[in-house]
Amino acid sequence: MQIDDLYQELIIDHGTEPRNCRVLENANHEFEGFNPLCGDKVHVYVLVENDIIRDVSFKNKGCAISTASASIMTEMLKGITIAQAHDIFKQFQHLLTSEEEPTESLGKLAALVGVRKFPSRVKCATLAWHTLQQALNAKDYHG
Ligand code: ZN
């Protein structure tokens, strides 16, 4: 199987059967993000304890790219620190705006590398991550 086919399958898989797509009742951070370019909307819920992301989920209405990206994001964040999450986001943004090959630390997010050929879709791929950052900065921080 070609790597492009593998990436394509991952996006279809996560885009049609997203993981962690639910309201997180005990979230202590949440935020709703919107991508006007495409019409994608995503609500991200996070439970943070001692700077560690204990649980994370999302509800959304959007294209397959934005759904797949949010789904993959939630899979990657559980159990890591906020600093590590910021770091992954930085690497992901760099991937989508450079010509470089994906690094191993990006995991399944590497599947979204193809969107960099379509600058308008980059916002679809990063929406959940921008929303996560805003959720973590939001004022309703109790953790
Ligand atoms: Zn979109």
Descriptive labels:
globular; alpha+beta; 4 helices; 143 residues; binds zinc ion; 43% helix; three-stranded antiparallel sheet; 19% strand
Detail the topology: elements first, then pairings:
Elements: H1 3-16, E1 29-35, E2 40-49, E3 52-61, H2 64-77, H3 82-96, H4 119-137
Helix pairs in contact: 1-2, 2-4, 3-4
The protein binds zinc ion.
In words, what does this structure look like?
It is a single chain. The chain is α+β, with helices and mostly antiparallel strands. Helices cover 43% and strands 19% of the residues. It is built from 4 helices and 3 strands, in the order αβββααα. It has a 3-stranded antiparallel beta sheet, with helices on one face. Helix 1 crosses helix 2, helix 2 (64-77) crosses helix 4 (119-137) and helix 3 packs antiparallel against helix 4. The N and C termini lie far apart (44 Å). The model has no long low-confidence stretch (mean pLDDT 93). The structure holds zinc ion (ZN). Residues 35, 38, 40, 62-63, 65-66, 124 line the site of zinc ion.
In short:
This protein is α+β, with helices and mostly antiparallel strands and about 140 residues long. The protein contains four helices and three strands. Zinc ion binds near residues 40, 66 and 124.
